[in-house]
Amino acid sequence: xxxxxxxxxxxxxxxxxxxxxxxxxxxxxxxxxxxxxxxxxxxxxxxxxxxxxxxxxxxxxxxxxxxxxxxxxxxxxxxxxxxxxxxxxxxxxxxxxxxxxxxxxxxxxxxxxxxxxxxxxxxxxxxxxxxxxxxxxxxxxxxxxxxxxxxxxxxxxxxxxxxxxxxxxxxxxxxxxxxxxxxxxxxxxxxxxxxxxxxxxxxxxxxxxxxxxxxxxxxxxxxxxxxxxxxxxxxxxxxxxxxxxxxxxxxxxxxxxxxxxxxxxxxxxxxxxxxxxxxxxxxxxxxxxxxxxxxxxxxxxxxxxxxxxxxxxxxxxxxxxxxxxxxxxxxxxxxxxxxxxxxxxxxxxxxxxxxxxxxxxxxxxxxxxxxxxxxxxxxxxxxxxxxxxxxxxxxxxxxxxxxxxxxxxxxxxxxxxxxxxxxxxxxxxxxxxxxxxxxxxxxxxxxxxxxxxxxxxxxxxxxxxxxxxxxxxxxxxxxxxxxxxxxxxxxxxxxxxxxxxxxxxxxxxxxxxxxxxxxxxxxxxxxxxxxxxxxxxxxxxxxxxxxxxxxxxxxxxxxxxxxxxxxxxxxxxxxxxxxxxxxxxxxxxxxxxxxxxxxxxxxxxxxxxxxxxxxxxxxxxxxxxxxxxxxxxxxxx
Amino acid sequence: xxxxxxxxxxxxxxxxxxxxxxxxxxxxxxxxxxxxxxxxxxxxxxxxxxxxxxxxxxxxxxxxxxxxxxxxxxxxxxxxxxxxxxxxxxxxxxxxxxxxxxxxxxxxxxxxxxxxxxxxxxxxxxxxxxxxxxxxxxxxxxxxxxxxxxxxxxxxxxxxxxxxxxxxxxxxxxxxxxxxxxxxxxxxxxxxxxxxx
Lengths: 637, 197
Hints:
The complex is a heterodimer of chains A (about 625) and B (about 200). Chain A folds into 4 domains: about 5-35 and about 220-315, Immunoglobulin-like, CATH 2.60.40; about 40-220, von Willebrand factor, type A domain (Rossmann fold, 3-Layer(aba) Sandwich); about 320-400, no CATH class; about 415-630, Collagenase (Catalytic Domain). In chain A, strands 2-16-15-10-13-12 form a 6-stranded mixed β-sheet. Chain A is globular. Chain A is about 40% helix and about 25% strand. In chain A, helix 15 (about 545-560) runs antiparallel to helix 18 (about 615-630). Chain A is α/β, with parallel strands linked by helices. Chain B has about 200 residues and is mainly alpha-helical. Among the domains of chain B are: about 15-90, Multidrug-efflux Transporter Regulator, Chain: A, Domain 2 (Orthogonal Bundle), CATH 1.10.1660.10; about 150-195. Helices cover about 40% and strands about 10% of the residues of chain B. Chain B has a two-stranded antiparallel sheet with strand order 1-2. In chain B, a hairpin with a 2-residue loop joins strand 1 (about 155-160) and strand 2. In chain B, helix 3 (about 50-65) crosses helix 5. Classes of the chains: A alpha/beta (about 625), B mainly alpha (about 200). At the A-B interface, strand 6, helix 2, helix 3, helix 4 and strand 10 of A face helix 2, helix 3, helix 6 and strand 1 of B.
């Protein structure tokens, strides 16, 4: 199984004398193929007077789209409320009859009256609960455009109900539309309720949000996921991300809620370490947990106690610094907004300015963190003038930032994440070999095994001709989509990986995966993206094994495309066997035999020469690959 | 390493084991690979016994306590089938006390179950009240949801002055109050128009 829990520290040394604080960036990628869980879905629609017109029409449309996406094994209920609560559809199987009745009732629903938000929502949760049984997801979506002005209106009570219902298997998501609802209440309900908060600034967004939220419920792969963290003695943990945190027999548990297939969740952990002795290590271990045992990933990070000089001199990871700054800024902005609404804008302003000051002090010359500091300062000045719409936008955007949700309000999937990751890693990846090498590739690996293979192959090629070959390793960027050894890599995943990797730079890229390509081939060339996906399946990955020769062969072959846009090494292929790289191969042992015979026939040499390749150089690289195959296993590393 | 346990009664195939243990096949294979479950032998004909199922259930329970797999493996080491069964029979702390369901919780918060409304599946639903047709309460509502006594034929109207200010009116109003309201609205509109300029 590819590893999809990734932990990256901002720095790895901690002070021996005095406490130190370290940030850890944590990236979680939920697995792709879900064993779909049946859902008990409750839709709770506001039909107070102000919903009249397009708002109610669009809410209706969204509800109908959501209902149609359910299957018979799911349970459906619909509640409409104003000052009165009407259960339009009682919890029952989402079969065709129930769906037709639900649509009919929704069409009959008209707007009027006041807003008993809490009563409507609780009745919705009751219905979800009635449809709940073991292994089923309970989700209630509350839609409103107004303030709770009837029934239970105390916010603390409502939020407490949401948290209580979450522990009883009913998750609450909230969707506010227009300018008149209470963004603070809806956001807090969603956070306590383990669900999501949406703000439809325009009624037109309603339908997509309702359908999208339901779609996510149907793609949940891990229920009630939690990140469990084991800290060294005396250390303490906080996080700017608003997930409920509790301590359980010495371990810290961060409740992440349900994870959707392919969902990417990035969060920041801040660990405060006690003093220690120089040279000692402190270990932070974490693992993912979920109610169904789908996630079995763990990760650990060691920190070393060091002298003041070594501590001050250590490099820092800019990406983690930025992730931490962005999360803490979002949290401060949200708090400042709350303070402003409570009439304490001066306190909010002070909070933002203080954080901006800290950013300026520690950011060095990092342009992104400095820009964040300026944004906080500007927001501090604007705080008192923010109107109701600004406050809603603020709550919604900070919720998205802190919970890794995209601009469309939905979870972020792996493709853009991989592209972004690859790009970040490429910017940091080191180029090996001469600047003007005629053969050049960027190798994107899924893990340390792939990286070691590329390094070994690269060293062998450099030893053969120091001027001929150069390469860059992007270590681990392919991990989120690689299916793992012996597991089929679907065509969809392969294409997603290709597109994601292609986004980063112009070089020809080789993605080295462990998954099995669908047609069983060793590699696939994607000409439009100039990306090769090469599978290690069936090659001996051990040091000295055949995988090293295979990787080196791929790197030379694909590296010959560098700077020669019209050239395709496939042109130098023939149908007869000549002990040449152009020989046809039906399987791995034939490729191995070809590499071991290792040569280029005169015809292939001429084709390479016509393409502008220095054949002498190429032959030296081919010979280096031959040596990798021929040496006895385990002799060299 | 895990003891293979009783081999006498290997009646379950992988699907049975997954269904009864509420896990996926992938999870079972992973546990076998990690040495948490005894290997069932190779191939598609692999059989599992009650010992496997009990062990699987105990693993799941320990996992629910957020224990890492390495720790679970350590705890299972040296336990025979009987010891595993004994552990499964002790209820985990907290679970015995039991928590009430979501339904009970809502009913205690709202003082009873949802009232029977005409909108019950299977019957023809009458149209929901519209602003033009005043709301008629269809049945007594539970205490916490109760509206003011006079409201059973009433309906609230929201009159927007600006996007931020609304006046709420419960209709019907007496003729006298209606006149006062008209006057109030006129004044209010004038006031807000002036403010905007």
